[in-house]
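Anyone have tokens for Phage tail tape measure protein? Sequence:
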Amino acid sequence: GAVAGVASNAVTTLTGGIGDMVSQAAEASDAMQKFDSTMEFAGFGKDSINSAKEAVKKYADDTVYDLNTVANTTAQLAANGVKDYTGLTEAAGNLNAVAGGNADTFGSVAMVLTQTAGA
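Reply: yep, here.
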């Protein structure tokens, strides 16, 4: 009765958590594949891509911002010829945080930033 119910809830919680982790891993992998593709298309070599990739992962890990937004923003800026594309992404994220923004507002800031760079 009660023990089986507790065990069932524990298994459901555990499998749900594992499912979330698998989903996050798939999203991270997809984000980095898109990052690689955009950077390669823009003419960046493996060394530049790998260096930027490490910076992107670290910044996403160190902040509340999701890897997909950080990677996409950085790659779009790079593809549009912005020189310090990783630095600009981080500066925008830091400014967003100082202004009281969160992950959602950073998404908006990132969109404006990439649209402005592409104009």
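DSSP finds five helices and no strands in the chain.
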